[in-house]
């Protein structure tokens, strides 16, 4: 998150256009960005952009706000009055805090319904493992592996003693239902747990 005001204090100019923006310094462009939704995103690596923020503390309020764990203005003022050692940070309106914006921003919720639309069986199958169960079955199973066909909503469940049995049960599921429905499994969707992301499952799916 970049503050235009802080960039201006550093002698930089920001030019906004309908779908892009440019940061100028010494008559040359030093950064480019494009508009995504209602925000302008800099053109740089995702990992690098995640940690881009203005870290300078140019006031006593900003300094003690950071030291005390980013409380709001009123909470910091009450702490100053109730303790010794914290100077009077004043009542000036605080500047934009990059740490607060990054830590308190909301995350977009997952959609309640998938936007993927299938047109036949086995085009997309959802799978997951439930367990470790509190009670063991008579056969010694402690986990339940489920397969849900997205198109028909047909559900198949297997009881497992160990998670490492997932690959063999996936192979059994594919062999039986591909033959019964005369279709090939095209996409398997999981939560990317290690029971699904491994060499055995990859070998079966390729």
Automatic annotation (TrEMBL):
Keywords: DNA integration, DNA recombination, DNA-directed DNA polymerase, Endonuclease, Hydrolase, Magnesium, Metal-binding, Nuclease, Nucleotidyltransferase, RNA-directed DNA polymerase, Transferase. One of its GO terms (molecular function) is metal ion binding. Pfam families: gag_pre-integrs (PF13976), rve (PF00665). Residues 107-206 form the Integrase catalytic domain. The keyword Ion transport does not apply. GO terms for biological process: DNA integration; DNA recombination. Gene3D superfamilies: Ribonuclease H-like superfamily/Ribonuclease H. PROSITE patterns: INTEGRASE. PANTHER family: TRANSPOSASE, PUTATIVE-RELATED (PTHR42648), TRANSPOSON TY4-P GAG-POL POLYPROTEIN (PTHR42648:SF11). This is Integrase catalytic domain-containing protein. It comes from Phytophthora rubi.
């Amino acid at each position: 998150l970049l503050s235009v005001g802080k960039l201006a204090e550093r002698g930089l100019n920001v030019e906004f256009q309908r779908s892009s923006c440019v940061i100028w310094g010494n008559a040359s462009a030093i950064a480019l960005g494009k508009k995504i939704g209602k925000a302008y995103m800099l053109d740089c690596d995702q990992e690098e952009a995640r940690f881009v923020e203005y870290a300078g503390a140019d006031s006593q309020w900003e300094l003690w706000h950071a030291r005390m764990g980013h409380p709001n203005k009123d909470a910091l003022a009450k702490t100053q009055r109730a303790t010794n050692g914290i100077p009077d940070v004043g009542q000036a309106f605080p500047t934009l805090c990059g740490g607060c914006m990054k830590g308190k921003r909301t995350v977009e919720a997952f959609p309640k319904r998938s936007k993927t639309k299938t047109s036949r069986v086995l085009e997309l199958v959802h799978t997951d493992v439930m367990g470790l169960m509190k009670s063991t079955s008579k056969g010694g199973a402690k986990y339940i592996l489920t397969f849900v066909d997205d198109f028909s909503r047909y559900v198949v469940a297997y009881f497992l003693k160990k998670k490492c049995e997932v690959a063999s049960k996936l192979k059994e599921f594919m062999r039986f239902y591909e033959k019964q429905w005369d279709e090939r499994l095209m996409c398997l969707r999981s939560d990317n747990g290690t029971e699904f992301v491994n060499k055995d499952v990859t070998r079966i799916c390729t």
